[in-house]
Specification:
This protein has about 120 residues and is of the alpha+beta class. The protein has a single domain, classed as SH3 type barrels (Roll), CATH 2.30.30.40. Strands 1, 2, 3, 6, 7, 8 and 9 form a seven-stranded antiparallel β-sheet that branches. A two-stranded antiparallel ribbon has the order 4-5. Strand 6 and strand 7 form a beta hairpin.
Length: about 120
């Protein structure tokens, strides 16, 4: 009886873990890519293509506050999101996080902190 409970418990944990992974993997049809230059995995863009800046954002060459600036997005402006990536941690817009979005705005490209953008309604 104890062995059966342990086995069922392990199966339950496995199902919960699998459900959590599939729920965060992105929508059906999203492709998985690998970045060869840094070795970090690219992930589905948080807002599926379009986002709005919560505050004025500085786009950066790398996913880090220390990355060279490539442009700005004024608060309230819409931008095109190409993909999301895990990068250097930050404490901005009320959140401690390490999620960055690679975006295009006014023909300029760069990374912005994911915590400082929201979905286009």
């Amino acid at each position: 009886m104890i062995r059966v409970r342990k086995t069922l418990g392990a199966m339950t944990v496995a199902l919960v873990v699998a459900a959590g992974v599939s729920a965060t993997a992105g929508p059906a049809g999203a492709t998985s890519k690998t970045r060869t230059t840094s070795g970090s995995a690219l992930i589905y863009c948080l807002y599926g293509g379009l986002g709005i800046a919560k505050v004025t954002l500085t786009m950066r060459k790398s996913p880090s506050l220390g990355g060279a600036p490539t442009g700005t997005i004024p608060a309230g402006k819409i931008f095109n999101c190409k993909y999301g990536e895990i990068g250097a941690g930050y404490n901005l817009c009320g959140r401690v996080w390490n999620r960055w979005e690679y975006v295009v705005h006014n023909d300029k490209k760069g990374y912005v902190p994911g915590a400082c953008v929201r979905a286009l309604d």
